[in-house]
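tool_log.txt
---
The assistant was asked to compare two proteins side by side. It first ran the structure predictor on the initial sequence, then on the second. Raw inputs and outputs are pasted verbatim so the downstream comparison step can read them without reformatting.
(1)
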Amino acid sequence: MPVRRLDPILIDRIAAGEVIERPAAAVKELVENALDAGARRIEVVLEAGGRRLIRVTDDGHGMDAGDLALSVERHATSKLPDGDLTRIMTLGFRGEALPSIASVARLAIETRGAGTPNGWGILVDAGQKEEVRPSAMARGTRIEVRDLFHATPARLKFLKSDRAEALAVSQMLKRLAMANPETRFILAGDNISGFDYAACASGAEGQLQRLGQVLGREFRDNSVPVSATREGVVLEGFAGLPTYHRATSQEQYLFVNGRPVRDKLLHGAVRGAYQDMMSGDRHAVVALFLTLDPAEVDVNVHPAKAEVRFRDPGLMRGLIVGALRLALTNAGHRAATTGGIALQRAFQPGPMPHHAAGVAPRADFDWRASPYAPSVLHEPPQAGLAMDFAPAARAETLPAAEPTEFPLGAARAQLHNTYIVAQTQDGFILVDQHAAHERLVYERLKAARATGGIARQILLIPAVVECEEEMAERLAAAAGELEAIGLVLEGFGPGAVIVREVPSVLAGSDVTAMVRDLGEHLAEWRGADSAAARVDHVLKTFACHHSVRAGRGLRVEEMNALLREMEATPGSGQCNHGRPTWISLSLADIERLFGR
């Protein structure tokens, strides 16, 4: 067939397929235009998930009649005054949004600039443009998109349900709201719970307030500020504590010069920063904002502008990893408050026995067999801590100055030889002794490695560890790597290795069990992680085998010493797998549980 030039309207509809794939994409383009116009109030109204109606109203600069007529033409924009694509300062820049939407829907625009006597309006139906006409309009712009894709009905069958499309609009609008805290955002419509985010102050305080509006109070209470600058690149934002995590990375919000992006490099940097504090199947919650010279980033690499390309990707990764690790280190022993909420739920009164509701128990009822029987009556005395509740005895055994003024308080009891109960000034905390000590030992090992090597101790009698032949080969192959961190072993015939030296902190631990665990883990780590990551995995295994075990009784002095070391150790709020090492309950929460 001969080559022919396509009809201009058909060209617009083809282009619209790249830019406007669903209602959320149309809303994104319109809201970005409003932000570029300096809007401080943006209202979005939807019907049928945006398929029937999208209305975006803003109080931005507005347009005059000439600009309005050009705005619906292909490749007409006010955002590239010098035509330089290497220094894009705005969210939009291609001049495709309005004509693309107008080619597949019914588009109505009303706008008025500051100081003009009246507004102007225009209608475009499936690419057919009418004349600009005067309009009664306040300052700003109102755009209505009706019957989206009515000119290309085949696209309609690819849309999801009205609710799913409305939720996509909501998620997109929330991302833009995070990046623009000084602007008020309103969303209303059917099939969705709308929102009204009031404008916030500028600076970090206003940013955290907006993040609290969007992500909720939990994020605000369980996040730490992030701030760093390197070679002209500024990183700001907030990062969730390692114990405040999610099953997917959907709640990792990353912005480059105010533009929401989904970038593999940036997400990988976030994962690398948390890998030492979180289980591999969990994901951190962060909201990070990168500001850099527009010449250092290319935003014109994706039709929807959702991806970017950096001139120096190594700088970006190093900045994010370093800033996040510093922020989490400065958080010290903090753990997520969500553990305390779960503890409150655990203490909520459960269903009562039938006799409590006025039904008499059977004659052969044995209270010892009841699921409501208090377990404390079956609990044997704890060998690790003698509890005497007599006032006189208590006054004699407690020190004159109790350490309740410390963040983690003073040890009061040990439950099931596993959990430490400590009293603070305004409540109590519950500590998992094994998880907490495991983290402390791991941090000691890392510090020793960083300051000249881990001290080793020669075994008086070398330990021969028998295992599968394949495991023995893996251990022998990693002997050099293990020796650098204090574990000296070598092959000892088929199916065995001999251990001659261990890190000093592991003296007295079960060497055989530890080496076998290492052999199993090496099969998973090798090839999948960097050498540094594998070393960290090995140190975690060391720490796990040397830590205070659940079921071991502790004296009051030992428990208090553990609490004090936790307070002085960064990252001690979570174990090596990302689980919390302690949870708290305030006195007010306790009183509320009892209805006081």
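(2)
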Amino acid sequence: MCGIAGIVDFNHNRNSIDTVKSMLQSISYRGPDECGIYHSQFSTMGNVRLSIIDLINGQQPLSDLSGRYWIVFNGEIFNYRELRAELEKDGRKLRTQSDTEVLVQLYSRYGKGCLGKLNGQFAFAIWDNLDEECFIARDRVGIRPLFYNISGGVFSFASEIKSLFQQRSINRELHAESLAQIYTFWTALTPNTAFKDIYELPPGHCLVFNRDGLKIERYWELVFDNRHANLSFDDALEGFDELLGSAVRLRLRADVEVAAYLSGGLDSTATVRYIKDIEPGILNTFSIGFEDKVFDESSYQTEAVKYLNTNHKSINCSSQDIARTFPGVVWHSETPLTRTAPAPMMILSKLVRDNNIKVVITGEGSDEMLAGYDIFREARIRRFWASQPGSSIRPLLLKKLYPDIPHLRNAPTNMLKMFFGYKLDDVGNPFYSHLLRWNNSNHIKKHFSPDLRESLRDYAPQDLLSAQLPGGFDNWDALARSQWLETTIFMSGYLLSSQGDRMAMANSVEGRYPFLDYRLIEFCAGLPADYKLKGLNEKFLLKKLMENRIPESIIKRPKQPYRAPVSSVFMAAGAPQYVNEMISATYTKKAGIFNMETLMPLYNRMEKTGTASEMDNMVLAAVISTHLLHHQFIENNHDEFHTPELKNLKLVEDF
């Protein structure tokens, strides 16, 4: 794992070394072990390295043997040993044991065709000295980030947006249409970001920048089809078991210790079971608990640790801890947030790093691939209810989905109808499963300032999403459409960013995700729907697979979405001073994004009652995070957070 940054300028590349140094300095926590910069007539690019494979010889930038191609690389190619053997059989000689050299040699051999051979999580850039062009690619589902900007003919790229902003010529401005997207989908739709003129390379895409300009191309697409429609359930179990075992085995490859998160849920417990089967012995595991018992899963964590016999460490998270951490969360996320859930993940990654561990295996991806989220079951119940919309019995099924939300658990039927009945009959809508969530998020936009609301009056974020749907989407079954939306929008844009890469790399920790092995993704995408969601029994295939392999109580436990408190974090007595500043009338007017006249009654109600609805919590998190983002990146126009000094700088000048 690393951070990368670079500039391609066909006119005036003379001063780019100092600029790229600043770009790398701003993200040096992503790679605190060493640093390298490649500089040529038209291209300067660099890397800060977190050493995990080939600790001695894997320093970047690195070239192929001819010196034509130079690479900076963020991520891991897990099948690099097999690919290395393929290159050597082809007569290629390699100087290091690193996956970075395997990658640049593959590109020199196959060009962009190498992407189909990679099993990994990556964002990398390769400069071609002969053709004078930059090639950049990002992994299939967007585990590793990559942002870019083109200003005055100068192309620049980086692992994080703050790195791009080291170029003072790039304006810092929040993008109104992106805010409308974020407060609908919880994330901007790629290639958009929260900032104007800052773009994200979409997952599964590559780009080329040369004198002719920028060209972006898709090399992989998530497609749900019927390729395994006739596969028996037992054969599906066997195939899934083989693929998951292989995915875990590949992700244990490292020249440093690999640990694991163990949340007490099905997914992390399953991955730890596989790790223990593959490499018996001591395994360090980590988890986080909450002082607020509504969010705490410690009892299940304890049971999993005892059953699997791991060396476990846990940290307890209070509302004060979340409040203290939240500004750093926004700084690393680089986007407005609707929840505080990333904060405990950042606290957890610090615990990992404090124990001198750089790599953790986690369970992300299982809920998307195997229909584990409540939104999939909610959509199924709403469709069932929609066939008899007047029923007073069918809406009661929704109570079973959210036992952790008291006002829904105890709600009468008329309240359930009011809350869950939004566009109930619109079952033909391709976005049916997500309409309710998006409508709830849209409440945030009711608090936009009059000027912002006017500028967005005719803007409909769903129209942009409609244009991005894959061919054949309308012919997929209802669950497949739901899974595509959740995987493509929420998982990539929110989960793997705000709760994955950014919160781990803030503390120089690499997360690895076996359930996001592309082979496993494609396998699950071809399975019959009821192998994944059997009635209302989510992740049915994985539950069956883990019988007698993990505690039965964890298999049968009610689904508990990972959440963290919001109103008790920000509205409690003794909250940090920044909270009062960010929700003040003064800052609200200064930022010009929200309307204090509509927000004040909400703040007063929270303070008076000490409670808040889910939508109120989303509004509160949105206002504070958006104002923090404005304060950190726009108002101050400089870095607020300390970053480590660059270490072991290697400069390669190539003319």
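---
observation on (2): The CA atoms of residues 445 and 453 lie 8 Å apart. Residues 478-505 form the longest helix (28 residues).
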